[in-house]
User: Fold this.
Amino acid sequence: MNTGFDIEITESEESELCDWQLPLAFMKKRHTEEIVGSRTVSQTWRLKERMKTVSVALVLCLNVGVDPPDIVKTTPCARLECWIDPLALSPQKALEAIGGNLQKQYERWQPRARYKQSLDPTVEEVKKLCTSLRRNAKEERVLFHYNGHGVPKPTSNGEIWVFNKSYTQYIPLSIYDLQTWMGSPSIFVYDCSHAGIILESFKQFCIQREQEYEAQINRNHSGIHNNMPMPPPLKNCIQLAACSSTQLLPMNPELPADLFTSCLSTPIKIALKWFCNQKSSKLVPGVTLELIDKIPGRLNDRRTPLGELNWIFTAITDTIAWNVLPRELFQKLFRQDLLVASLFRNFLLAERIMRSYNCTPVSSPRLPPMYHHPMWQAWDLAVDHCLSQLSTTSTQADYKHSPFFAEQLTAFQVWLTLGDEKRNPPEQLPIVLQVLLSQVHRLRALDLLGRFLDLGPWAVSLALSVGIFPYVLKLLQSSARELRPLLVFIWAKILAVDSSCQSDLVRDNGHKYFLSVLADPYMPAEHRTMAAFVLAMIVHNYNNGQEACLQGNLIAICLDQLSDQHHLLRQWLALCLARIWTNFDAARWCGVRDSAHEKLYSLLNDPLPEVR
Assistant:
């Protein structure tokens, strides 16, 4: 007999005990330890506002065949624009072909956006284009892409150059005016020499606008009417520039003239060509540029060599950004807008490639240098692995897939054996997210993810901040039985930390997944218990959740299992029933019709006090 003091006594000794020494009930460890609520973690993973880039202005100032007066080009020099040699066609046809190619390159990243080309335009044409796109975009983002290879460099007064109608003069276009026409939210891409000047001018004009607006408000307080619109906030304007304010673009004839644009819009193609031009040792030194163009597959098919490379590139650039950037900035640039996220992943490549030619791309918001991150070595190895097979594999069927993802999962597994909250987060977490897309590694990835989430609320918050939520939500559509225990465990952990996810589950019919798990007699009681917990969280103080689960027959499913031998399951079934009919008469009447009160009555004599 346990007295509560960990001393075993006999029945005869018990009769001699004073009242205060009598054995006590509820003396197991779970009853005696201090009740301390889990430390809450503030919810920062949800995006304050999702956004889409719905309109794109492609402004090309090339003036094919005429070099700008302030730049002396080398002979030979870089010529390709959007992978087209402008001198191989007539000037007008070249301009149109380049504009068409640029649009196709952007469409790969955002196929649903509205694209408008402005080829060798005047100031009025740019104004008309920008104001039209802003008007149609309303509160969504607009992208302005500027190629200034055929005009003088930007001025220190904050001007870029376009043309007059007869192409006899270069006409300045003020960044101040461009801000007015574009409004916010916007993203600007500047591919021209000395592009950093534009960023500096842009910031100065934003400050100037705010000062003018404040002055106007002050005058308004003095009785003067204020008609001045709010200036576009700088924080809502993202900018990517090809180089700093003092640098020229590379003229190496081995490179495209629009190297920055190539990095942003065709990253795999330029990354492979740059890799082959490097003098560093490679597994197969004899790989040529012609051989690169023969890599089989499609970029959007992960099962093909080219698609696998693209997949690895996405995982690596995501990982670099997540490990280096502050969480809020990572969320804004890499999770809020699909096109912006793609451009910034590719911007990391642009920084790496262009720095090797003494050119430093700059951005607003400014990013710390990431070109030397050790994950780039993993990218080089993946490229090497792919290229090494080009000369030996005759068909795509002979291609051996990269070990990259398996190796990264192993690294994550090693971290888990040593990991705790005080250590740096596992750098492979964004890669685990990408691996969930693959059927080959999905089971292992979910197992490791579950083990990570089991470390505590801090681990759940970290996984949510990296963007795991939409992936595990979509996996609820899978019919694979082997995933069920892992997904139920993962969702139990997520809902224990952030119960607001109940609305996402109901909206996407995710509750049906857990109803099927709970109703499955072949599912171990432990997993059915977790499913009951998830469902109890879905219906807790949430009318839509109660309604959805009532229609899913939750009450009958729970009542049928009240006599199960697993006491935790009985406990959570009772809690689930209590929560579904709290302030919900339709569920109460359903329970009455199913004789719920009679079936629950037997639990009053349950041997477990928690169930009682």
User: Anything to note?
Assistant: The first helix runs from residue 11 to 15. Strands lie at 53-60, 114-119, 141-147, 159-163, 170-174, 186-191, 237-241, 362-364.
